[in-house]
Amino acid sequence: MKDKLYLFLAMVMVVSLCAVPALAAYVPGSYTAQAAGYGDAVSVTVTVDETGIAAVVLDVSGETEAIGGAAAEALVQQILAAQSAEIDGVSGATVTSNAVKRALKEALNQAKGIEEGEKQPVSDGTYTGSAVGFGLRGMMKAEVTFKDNAIADIVIVEETDSLTGEWFANAEELLIPRIIENQSLAVDAITGATSSSNGIKNAVAAAIHEAGGDSNQWYTQISKRDDKVVLEGYDVVVVGMGGSGILSYCAAADQGASVFGIEAAGKIGGNSVCTYGPMALNSQYLKDTFNEGEDYINADDVYNTWIEYVGSEDKADIIYKAVHNSGTSLDYYVENFGFEFEGMGLLGSFVVPEWTKLWCVFTGDDNNTSWNILGPNKTYQFLRALDIAKEMNEKNDYLTELTASTLIFDEEENIIGVNAEYYDGTQYEIYGESVILATGGFLGNDQMMTEYLGSVVNAMGVTVNDGTGIQMGKSAGGATYMMKTLPMVHISQVRNLIRNDDLTADQKAILSALALTMDQRMITNQGTSWGNQNQSGTTDEAITVDILFAPDYMYYVLYTQEDIDGIRANGLSAGQASANSMFLSQGGTLPEAGVAVADIDEILAVGQQYNNVIKADGIAALAQALNCDEAALSATLDGVETSYYAVACTSYAYGTVGGLDVDANMNVLREDGTPIPNLFAVGQDSEGVCNVDGKAYTPWGGQAQSWTFVSGQIAGEQAAQLTREE
To answer: Fewer CB under 10 Å: which end of the chain, C or N?
Structure first.
């Protein structure tokens, strides 16, 4: 997990001068340097004496725990053995390895007293570099043009990041000009597109090497600004410009309020731009457009089912609005802000088969009429809505890459604004009569995930949603509600996606099939049996979110050596050959059942490198690898001693559910149930009020996106009304 510091400290007891090449003299002491890794900056602290490296400490806490994090110990050992940065690195953790090498070189240069000077010359011309980005189906390739030892142009010529969502375009648009302007790869990744940003930087670094340069010399630090900007006189400040924040902004502006929006990411929309669409009951627009003007669902049936699911009427007034306002809210935004939908019932229902028309689907833009992995491109719809809202008051504005930090209170502890920081370091004080929290829950906060949900979970989507809104609400005395509602998961895959070319696409598909099949024995990381539990509350036995109820949101699909020998000789079973990776497909094609898989051993070996596969010779070894009770595991496996292959299957979430407690006006409530008059929470910052601890979020289909519409309209109107009353 990101907040866990991986510290691997090794002391050299004896260094044989005949075994180690002569080293330049060091100034004894400890030296620290950083370099961009896969997830965040990698830090290396090296301690030296006059002749060599005595100790190394790596901070790879921003890297993927099971890949970059797991590689740290091996990297330290390699450094101590080589007594330099010229190490092989760890297979499967190339990006982290290269970052460690770059940072170590810089730290050793400090120890040698070498000042940062001119860069090693690069040749004029255009050179190509490749790197891993966020894409599932191939690496990123950049063409970099150099002129007079400077970067003149960067063009991304190949990428698959955009197939997974809309964030790559933002990284490309914002990051490349900053690299060229600063002539440095140390520019900050674009918030909300970190993996794509690092892919771009690492591809440029590879091109620098192709041009004859040393990319380590291009990580020159960029100074942050120390300016302060004060913005005053706003009626409403919206913190977070994802779906719920944008819809709150629009509703407040429509009521005549002056509104300022704050968005930490480099683009608006948040995870709302990667949804298919909202639940909407008996929307007049949908009825007229797609259902001959007729009602298409009994809203009371949905309401009663919802109350039964949560098992309480404590929030009955809110749930009533979540149901009955879902259609009218959609109509409001269609009529006033130009939202468009291409149909309803295209995805069916997760719960009741006859509720087929409950879920409607956004219309994609002209350049993306077909769906990508996460649905149609709809950023343009949210941008269009914001443009309309901005025009309603000349003071209205918003700013991306602006990260809110704390609420501003007056001497009487009344909320009067928000503190925030721009990407370049500029501090902002934004004053307003009301604040709407719309920061998207806490999926990106490992500490909160562990505290409330017991474990981190792989994210599918942006992870800017780090609990800021919830923490800000709590700082004002706000209470939380149903924080232990299980995260939004409908997606499973191997634990660590292999985004480079260590396996072909077809080989990756086979590895995924081994994890996703339902016709093998499954066990938890506690050594107990696991199966399709269907604890989601659905009535359709074919649809389940069972993985949510497994310890740490994952389980292992178990194969014996005999099973693997059978696959090698006789191919996959019918169940394995039909396994569906859905949204996280890596583009490969599975062989037909019964076709021999001659390279199964290679696939499993690479799977081991990425911690997707555990190979254990016997029950005791498997129990040790799983860190579970051997006796319990033996009972699960009927005491059968053989070589085992455990293939990890884990969940991928696109949001959390629990958040701040609110009333039917979206006012944040204190612990005593009284409202904080000028503080509101919407979207995933308050969705817990529609749900219940220990269960999956209400699985109607489109419910979470519907809550952005319903809660956004209510909060925006109420915040504006509060201003008018004052």
So the answer is: C
